[in-house]
Design a protein that fits this description.
Layout: H1 16-19, E1 23-24, E2 26-31, E3 37-42, E4 45-49, E5 54-59, H2 71-79, E6 81-86, H3 92-97, H4 108-112, E7 116-118, E8 125-127, E9 132-143, E10 150-161, E11 166-167, E12 170-171, E13 179-181, E14 187-189
């Protein structure tokens, strides 16, 4: 099968997201200038550089009460900071609950029953008890072609690692089974890992 996206795929469901899988989920926490905490998952998320450590996430939708962007992007534009929380399998239901479209004055931490903790290097909340959390300062926001496509880049200024996830000097993802996004309504969790040595190592 071959198709041009501009012509449509002819399938019952769009296969694009199912091709680019699994995708890590950035559970992005922000705080508005008015002090309202926000928490939302984004599966267009990844690390983009080691030194200094930098991450990105893409927002592909908007809300009428935030001038065409989602609360996360609006808050980051206002404050210049955000936190990326790693989603473990045990928190899958809370993550899903936090994806609901709520009014800008709503606190998704409270809505999803998630305990908030204060970050160390930025004025923002993080998910208390998450396996890892990356405190970030905004470096740039890029607007992409399309109606509401925005990419947010940030430099990591602080990293929280849950102690029980460190084993033999490594951050061991099998201890918490990170959640990944597949296509459609599907998710995956990491339960097994294997090592490969690169030719130049």
């Amino acid at each position: 099968m071959f198709y041009r996206p501009e012509d449509g795929h002819g399938l019952p469901h769009n296969p694009f997201n199912a091709i680019i899988t699994p995708r890590p989920i950035g559970w992005i926490s922000t705080r508005s200038g008015d002090g309202v905490n926000n928490l939302a998952p984004y599966s267009f998320f990844n690390g983009v550089a080691y030194v200094p450590p930098q991450v990105m996430f893409a927002c592909t939708g908007g809300k009428p009460d935030q001038d065409g962007v989602k609360d996360s992007v609006a808050n980051i534009r206002e404050t210049g900071v955000f936190c990326v929380n790693v989603v473990e399998y045990a928190m899958r239901e809370a993550m899903n609950t936090s994806s609901a479209t709520l009014p800008r004055e709503a606190d998704e931490f409270a809505h999803a029953g998630v305990q908030a903790a204060e970050c160390e290097t930025i004025p923002c909340a993080r998910v208390d008890g998450a396996p890892a959390a990356l405190e970030c300062r905004l470096t740039r926001i890029v607007t992409l072609p399309g109606e509401a496509n925005t990419v947010v880049f940030g430099e990591v200024t602080g990293i929280h690692l849950r102690d029980d996830c460190i084993r033999d000097g490594r951050f061991d993802v099998t201890m918490f089974q990170p959640l990944g996004r597949m296509g459609y309504r599907d998710y995956v969790r990491v339960t097994d890992v294997f090592e490969m040595i690169r030719p130049d190592d």
